Amino acid sequence: MSPPTPRKRRGSGRATIHDVARLAGVGSITVSRYLKKNGYVSAELGARIDAAVAQLNYVPNLVAGGLASSRGKIVGMVIPNISGPIFASTIQSFSDTLNRHGYQVLLASSYFSAEQEENAVRTFLGWSPAALVVTGRFHTKGTEALLAGAGIPVVETWDYHPRRKPIQVGYSNAEVGAQSARYLLDKGYRRIAYVLNSVAGDLSALDRRDGYAAVLRERGIKPWTYTPTELAPFDAGRQALEALTRGRRKADAIVFANDNLAAGALLASQRAGMRVPQQCALMGFGDYAFSPLLLPSLTTIRPPGREIGELAARRILQALGELEPDQRNGRLNLLDCELLARESA
Amino acid sequence: MSPPTPRKRRGSGRATIHDVARLAGVGSITVSRYLKKNGYVSAELGARIDAAVAQLNYVPNLVAGGLASSRGKIVGMVIPNISGPIFASTIQSFSDTLNRHGYQVLLASSYFSAEQEENAVRTFLGWSPAALVVTGRFHTKGTEALLAGAGIPVVETWDYHPRRKPIQVGYSNAEVGAQSARYLLDKGYRRIAYVLNSVAGDLSALDRRDGYAAVLRERGIKPWTYTPTELAPFDAGRQALEALTRGRRKADAIVFANDNLAAGALLASQRAGMRVPQQCALMGFGDYAFSPLLLPSLTTIRPPGREIGELAARRILQALGELEPDQRNGRLNLLDCELLARESA
DNA sequence: TTGTAAGCGTTATCAA
DNA sequence: TTGATAACGCTTACAA
Q1: Considering only residues 286 to 305 of chain A, which have any Cβ-Cβ distance to chain B shorter than 8 Å?
Q2: Which residues in chain B show pLDDT less than 50?
Q3: Does the predicted model carry a pTM greater than 0.85?
Q4: CB distance A106–B109 less than 8 Å?
Q5: Residue B272, CB, less than 7 Å from strand C?
Q6: What's the pLDDT at B248?
Q7: Do A126 and B61 count as a contact with CB atoms less than 8 A apart?
Q8: Which of residues 185-224 of B touch A (CB under 8 A)?
Q9: Which residue of A204, A257, B186, B294 has the fewest C-beta atoms within 10 A of its own C-beta?
Q10: Widest Cα–Cα separation across chain B
Q11: Helices (DSSP H) in A25-172: which residue ranges?
């Protein structure tokens, strides 16, 4: 009857579930039940509750809900970096998919540092998240312990490796390296070098190199790895190109650990008047935004960034019972990378 | 004496502040005070608490803390999209700066839709965030009401406009348009066209066009706007180039609403054998990753994305009392864009 | 400097 | 189908 007059000493000042209940003339637990659509609320009360919610412009307090249920609708994601060309699409699709089911994403960057990752995981745990996502399979002991003890779904993204326990959603870096090597061998190249990057902590490039090396050895060719000393990727790419094409032994094809390095080499080759791919074929990894725009356009391999984010989100929602499990089973979490044959190789 | 045996009926199973207090032999409020370093805890008790925290591997429950203080250490950020070339660096620097002060960032994408923005803001409010960040100054009435009623610091990013009340951190799109026009006029170009993009909802391009048009009118030149019908930006750029250089009236310089459009035009010009900038100068906006790599490299204007994120975070921390206000005052939130004079104009 | 009591706004549990 | 009561784990207010 009387208008709701909260007049709290503390509190946010916003309408609470009790205000709604009072206005609708029902118990607050009924409002709670109705709003999360768990059934068992009559249509009549439902309508009264709807009206009260609208009148008070009620927004449920998710913090209180999370505390009461010890299961907040939050998912933490630790990713090496947000602004690089690589992970943004994963974050985007991950966040969009979870948002659609009422979950929010907390984000933190590790910058390829296992210690920063551990800090982020520790902080996230304080929000009692419903699930956690990390990148790759290399973590500190502390992170492993935190993840194991959290009792929530944990997904490792990007790097798919056999024989690991946690849910993994990603692709095989070794297979990517093998793909590059097979492609170049099939095109007739034989003096194929591999250029690592200089980002400390990006261990996936080593996996790719190993995949490349294995294929070469299978065909009786000795692998050839070059590690630039320049730190800036464009400079490192140029340095690698010079080192691998000016010596006595000349590469006829070069696989770079990523498209930044390859772009550096491509630009250097233009300046030096070198014909690509005739004198030396160049190949990258990542399919960055500029790669199709270079002249010659860069042959590269596209990692399934968007697909990883979406599938990781789906796996989490399934583990939380918010989504039906997929029909077919098997290695569904191992995604393929697409080789984009363009002009440079 | 006896080891802590929680044995709770509900709860997360993790150690609580009470477990720490019991183990350290102090009251739980003392633990709370000590952990947030508000002083008033003796060194001796502090040491005992530290030991207990370490022994139990205690992680404070931020959900409970947020509920009790009705002031969670969370900041919500609504941004048009994460994976585009534009906003990623803002998200990165924003998140990093806040993380450093113990705040976590909740992220949502609006895809330039004011309705989606409102939904995101409504959901964020449920987490009783410490502050909220939105992009631009165009919101629904509902969003305005939610933001005004939230009673927390709100920052509008990217678009700085005179005479708005909320904290704004950004640059002037009108000034960007004016910058482009002045640069081209100073280089001697006179038949300068402006090409809009076709992304519905990106109203900032219109502001840039207005700035360009104002400068041209000042010099007695009639502005010339072209709006492509193609949706894909590269196609739209090509279409604009053709329309503006093939007719009877030929542009000698074209300003594009963004680098994607400009890149489409640049590639089309190469294919058509047109000399850039001699026959027609091309200019973009955004300084995307590929822009310095194009041939000719793209003259463009770099928006201060990283700076916006960091400054927005600083303004929020200052509003929350976590950081000292800056010494100097004035229009400190209006950032400059850098014109990168490269080869295409 | 430390402690006690009372919330914060929701949901789990149990009873009706 | 609905409701009363007691958590959830922390912090504010107040007292000592």
Answers
A1: 288-290, 293-295
A2: 1-9
A3: yes
A4: no
A5: no
A6: 87
A7: yes
A8: none
A9: B186
A10: 94
A11: 28-35, 43-56, 62-69, 88-100, 114-125, 141-150
